[in-house]
């Protein structure tokens, strides 16, 4: 099979049963793979009302057709489950090289169900699948877990695992692979922890075939050329990493500061990509088949924060930095290393801490609650200490581990949590950039930027130059980005490939690889289909248009200082047009006509 | 002018595009066990090293090969492998001090870098210039020049 | 006025920020003045033929000049001009 291995692996941790089923190629054609196929498999089997941390929840790991080939920056896999942080469909995407290995082992998806009595790990070597004891690994951090699992299985095995955060079911715990890559958001790591599944080790030796090798190679070379000639994909990201965004967002005054109390931070440059390149950066890193190398191998030499690892990305530098009033990049880098080692999403962690800081400064959280730690904005040492305490659920970390919505609610002020559907919104102030606010409000997995990254056209001028303060046409762009991203996620591609490649490149590669012809229109339609499938799940889970809202602060508290001073978000004005473009009714429910057109009904 | 495949581990990002290009170039598919080049990565330090046949002047594999399957045409740089002469004894895989010759059970042959007939696919696909195919006598010059630059900085600073 | 440089543009100017006191009624004349100061490499980076280089983004007081008047955007003496190469996402 071209682009597909043809087999789906299923492991039931309750019974210990390992079984296989054939990949439904009709579904593969409609949903492509990875996020799309993973969604379809998950949604067909799981009750939308399931408790995410119960044995009845399932978790699907799926590579895409590109994964394991040299489609540029095309080595990703997707994790699908119901997120314990949000109770929405959770989809977390990761790079590294674990996804390709699962594909080489012969699987288009791995479905894990049930719960093991005691900690276990899976050892998959092509057709041989074992469920092995992991009690001796429980409690170990991600790097040590990876080393120990490899020592017991194969030195070259790729290992996806959880750290203490996932074991303790921190609601934003991540699944880490190759130690530093993350399926980060929504609490997918907590789902693994709730199943007593510590790690999945894989060795794969089978071949992935190509329908039209010559055409595929040509399409790949054309895609690589596009990326190489693009200033972002070809040079910018490798030189500075995503953290270069700090100064850009601050320059336009849409850089959320102190839990979104403001949109401008005077000393932002200290935590930006230029500073990172000059100080903590060791060298760039690339995931499997990547031609962009946005990864940052980093090292902190200051003895107080000495550590090595990868990152921080823009989001992490922001959330543990200026969102908490902090500008010490050594400390932020150190905390990012800790987040990787403990297996925790730095975006939700940092933003939850910022919320805690606001609650503390308001006198709602007391020194007694914090066991004497001053949770003031700007307290760098407290931020580093809380990183560890949150992942390990110690002291007040136990409350932070629930995310800012539950934290703030427990103190009677949920409006101080900067979340949508209980997931923390990331590093672009929606008052200063209108379209990304609409993405936050409507994203199927809760407050998220990456599934509809309109920043590319609203701020970065990539392909189009839209005014960030304007609302005109933003619903169109949000839908376009959401649909295209879904298709790329489903292919196994990294969305940074869009800095140089477009729908034409992707559909050409997918067609030559699989032998099934996708026009660019087909490709986008597959993305729209995936988006609607996820939406239907969320509706069945109980979500309504009332949940497509930003935190109250975004529509009531204007940005206080900087170039976007005085701005508010206008998401409520854009939402009706967005629903209409999506072919949904005024309540945000997909119409029968649109579902029929998408072959979902 | 004979050419040599030069490796720059300091430029390697660990992306494994070279392995993919190698497998695809030889078999038109992506089979991880078909690649003649392997990249080793250390996650904590973030360091990666591509490893492939060094086409040694005094090649151990040629010395131990009982049939002459491993051989060199006089005057060329490449250590050549003739499948027809190979008996699969795997002595070369033991003799190679770098582990760069491996036995492939799928094709029942020895895999070692053959420079793709003079246009190495790995070099074409490496996005970081960590692999270069250079004239033999200037291949080390970029590293020599870089280090000479460090002396220059040291003396200028003094 | 204040002029700020980011990412690789800093390498062309040797600094992250400077104060510009010479007259510059609009962006074009400011960039021409900066080019005289910082040299041909800077000039080539910001201009392409007679237009703003397509891989450069310039903000005046946080507004992308593409939404103002491009190279003809007027400048006041207390403005903050930020010059970025096209970069990143994430």
Describe the structure.
The complex is a heterotrimer of chains A (601), B (158) and C (90). Chain A is built from 24 helices and 17 strands. With 601 residues, chain A is α+β, with helices and mostly antiparallel strands. Chain A folds into three domains: 7-203, Aldehyde ferredoxin oxidoreductase, N-terminal domain (Aldehyde Ferredoxin Oxidoreductase,  A, domain 1, 4-Layer Sandwich), CATH 3.60.9; 241-424, Aldehyde Ferredoxin Oxidoreductase Protein, subunit A, domain 2; 434-597, Aldehyde Ferredoxin Oxidoreductase Protein, subunit A, domain 3. In chain A, the strands form four sheets. Chain A has a six-stranded mixed β-sheet with strand order 2-1-6-3-4-5, with helices on both faces. In chain A, strands 8-7-12-9-10-11 form a six-stranded mixed β-sheet. In chain A, strands 13-14-15 form a three-stranded antiparallel β-sheet. Chain A is globular. Chain B has a two-stranded antiparallel sheet. In chain B, strands 2-3 form a two-stranded antiparallel ribbon. A two-stranded antiparallel sheet of chain B has the order 4-5. The termini of chain B are far apart. Chain B has helices spanning 17-27, 60-64, 91-95, 121-125, 141-157; strands at residues 3-7, 38-42, 47-51, 70-71, 80-81, 102-104, 109-111, 131-135. With 158 residues, chain B is of the alpha+beta class. Chain C is α+β, with helices and mostly antiparallel strands. In chain C, strand 3 and strand 4 (51-52) form a beta hairpin. The model of chain C has no long low-confidence stretch (mean pLDDT 94). Chains in contact: A-B, A-C. At the A-B interface, helix 7, strand 13, strand 14 and strand 15 of A face helix 1 of B.
